Amino acid sequence: MPAKSKAIKDTLYLQRIGNRWYCRVPVPSRLRGELGPYLRKALDTSDINEARKRRWDFHPIAKAQIALAERRLGLAPARPAEGPRERSYAAFRARLKEVGPAVMTNVLDGEDMSNPALDALVDRAERSGEAEEADFVQAFRDYVKDRKVVSEVLKEYLEKNPKRSTTTEANYGTTVKLWIEHHGDRPLHDVSRSMALDWLNAVATGKARDTIKRYATVMSNLWLWVYRAADERPRNPFEDLTQAADERGRATESYDFFSDDELVKAYKAVAEDEELRPLFLISIYTGFRLSECMAAERQVLGGQECFVLLTGKSKNAARALPVHAKLKDVTAPTGAKASALSVRFGRLMRKAEIPEGKTFHSLRKSFTTALERLGCPEATAARLLGHAPLGITYGIYSKGRDVAELKEWVDRVSHPI
Known about the structure:
Layout: E1 14-17, E2 20-26, H1 32-35, E3 38-42, H2 48-73, H3 89-98, E4 103-105, E5 112-114, H4 116-128, H5 134-144, H6 150-160, H7 166-183, H8 193-204, H9 209-226, H10 241-244, H11 260-270, H12 276-286, H13 290-295, E6 297-301, E7 304-309, E8 319-322, H14 338-351, H15 361-374, H16 378-385, H17 392-397, H18 401-412
């Protein structure tokens, strides 16, 4: 037996008489003596899917007829009754979500049936006039088509595509928050190119070029996720969006490394900070980013004590790095937030009058520069810095001579502190 259809019974403004579908728009009570209870038009089809499309052709005509009758009779449109409920797209979606799925199974015969609670909600909306509002119509259409709002899409996307870095996840959250502030928490299905460009122009002011590009990339990824199962999909409105933006953004500033004098001065600035001091030392002798300094675990590999990172900013960031002799008794703090530490580090650098452009990431550059001065082979440096694409078995848990070779280069790194 073929599987039963799970088609959603969206019949807003629709009425079936015999085998034909009609569009039926309710008339306000003040005009029913003139126009009758409904304005009805045959849609000339017995196909429910076609009827759902054609109803929107007649709907604005019916609204225009109602408005014309009001003007002819000198009647002002009735104000909607004031009540505690908000009348917005988000509020309507929340109320629709409360009633449950649009289609449910009849426990008596096992057949699909329209959710009675949803039908009752629509009836109330028609009586109150809410069903005539554009936000209600759009919310109802999106709901019965099971279109997730963008905040739900973000949650689903991150659950199915976990990011290696909490920073990356935070970037996704920030981008979606900016989108919702501009266009509301709605599905991405009806987003046009002009809507996407209007948003990007609004949020791009004063931002770095890479930040603007990231905004567009995040929204593009979420849009593609929404349409991932579609046989045919429209053009991605976020594709190449930065090329069309009014503002391309300023060039991203590169991280400069500390000179020896600046490094000494910077260390003095954090020497009394119980959290930043050990992180400072770990970074200049490992090249770790701030989050990596806090995430690294100590393990013995090939007879050498190593910092081990199982995840990182990129797929290549997972690596093992022998512990420098200067770090034998240095332990990273636990329970601290990298974002708060980064802000505190910047504040201390400004107080110490360290030149602008020197951030915690600059400590990683100091390690890189030290390797370059030592003449460290590029392939070895790439492994130490997490740039080399190594497999987890070889790259993390390699033994013997391989770890000893890395240890030799790490111990040769020196700084004036």
